[in-house]
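Field: COMPLEX_INPUT
Field: COMPONENT_COUNT = two
Field: RESIDUE_TOTAL = 618
Field: MODE = joint
Values follow.
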Amino acid sequence: MMPTLLASLGYGLAITLLFASCAPLALRAHPRRMALALAAVCALLHLPILGISLLAVLRGALGDLSIVTLVFLSILFFRGPQSLLPYPRCFTLMGLAFFFLSFGVSPLHPYAWGYAPVVLTCLTGGLACLLWLRGGYAFSLALLAALLAWRLHWLDSSNLWDYLLDVPLVMTALGRDVFSGVAGRLPRAR
Amino acid sequence: MLRACFLSCHRYRRLVALPGIVCLTLWASWPAFLAPPPRFALPPLPASHPEETPRLESAVINQPDPRHVHAASIAALPDGGLFAVWFGGTDEGSTDVKIYAADYREGAWSPQRVLATPAQTIADTGRFVRKLGNPVAFVTPQGELWVVYVSVALGGWAASQLNLIVSPDLGRSWQPARRLITEPFLNLSTLVKGPPVFFENGDIGLPVYYQMAGKSGELLALSPKGEVRRVTRMDHGTRSIQPIVLVETPTRAVSLLRDTDDLPPHRVWRTETTDAGQHWSPLTQTDLPNPNSALSALRLQDGSLLAVANDVEDKRFRLSLLLSADEGRHWRVLHRFEDRESFLRNPPDIAAFRARLSEDLQHLSRMPDPEAVARNIEGNLCGTHCSWQYDYPYLIRAADGDFHLVYTWNRGLIRHLRFNETWLEKVR
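Field: COMPLEX_OUTPUT
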């Protein structure tokens, strides 16, 4: 029940934010419209089309979103992108390295560390402390929420990594880094 | 006063939150501190009946519809019965493939029944599924019958995921399917083939394999509730899949793996663990040929290993019973269950194939509608020429001491062979 609820909320938030970015004046400036759009999207996700709901297709193809992604989406929804700053760039590189190693091309298998994760939980907690002290409250809260959700087993997975990272999050972060890198190199318009 | 306190807290809020973060971290990591290192549970000793006469019995489990069947596994039930599962459909990987099951009670196999479909798996897991694949059935130490089966949402077998269905009453009723989350990248690429091993703490060690960019065997540990507890990879690279784990002591086990290497010689791979599966030694080749096909094995009471495999480097026209007295390094053939080597140099045309197939089907065992079976097999195995194929063995030993082998017979039948210890001693 909880994994389905969280998946519905996560994909609902993502789709609503996509709509809001396409029509910022119609949605973003009106919190009530945003809330209504989110409720409508969440309901539509469960609607069976040709015998299968969009939520089942998304969960089948992409899996469940991590808790960190859910927290980020919630912050984006309620507070806007500025609340996610400062953004640690090393996060994208770590995510890419993690997924690359999981393909079985090297003896390292970091995903296995996420099952009995004394080291990983301590690292996550330590990183949350560090980020909190440096003012990165959003990231710190996201990591702590992931630890809490993992301990309470809110997703289908029992691996802490699945609460911290997911492919859409890392790909979005990569896209953002590449876009901001390219945009930074472009000559500014006068 | 209050205002001063608030401002002070606000100023130091970064520090005030730290004890909370530390407490949450310790609480999250606490169960992992308490977990003892896992040890293998030794398989129970089967009954021994040395006075029996040698016995090798044959049966066919499936019906002619669907036309293509594959990847059977069999479980010995605590009540003395047997339970077999396999997948069947128009073809391997087609969207009409379902998981079928049958029970063996009072000396005969029941009619097959559908155990899982893509639609049912979607309904149970809330996740899209396009096709189904390998199922493995086994009874847990808690007495539940489990079936773990492969499903694919998008792409080929490299995009496989695992699902678990549990029967608390040995196959009479089934709980909804659950998705096992085993990989980080979209949970892609875990498949199952071999029988499980068990741990002293009740965990179930399921030999699975990964085949995307790399290919390797893995030992997946599941809790008695079906939660994934840990995973260890046996190798990295692209040379081995489908591990069979053979426990020797609470900490030692050998694993045999199917060869997927491009380079010859094509041999079964071998690795071993001395810490109950937490680490595995580098792979070494055995002297058992392997044509990139699944094998099955078990450990006998005297410590020797008994395997059923296609002991050739190419094709799957032969299926043999083999024995190793040195932990799987060297093997000798005890018996050929199937052998069509004589056809290798002269592949049969359809007429010759039909004649031989008809003869085989008459001798195989009783089955419904042998003509339909023959048509299915011809459709599955004949192009310009025809070929024979006996593969995907799955070998277990029941509590009464009898050995049960199921395998795919020319892609059209699931054959069950039952032999006793006396027969094994005779061929040894």
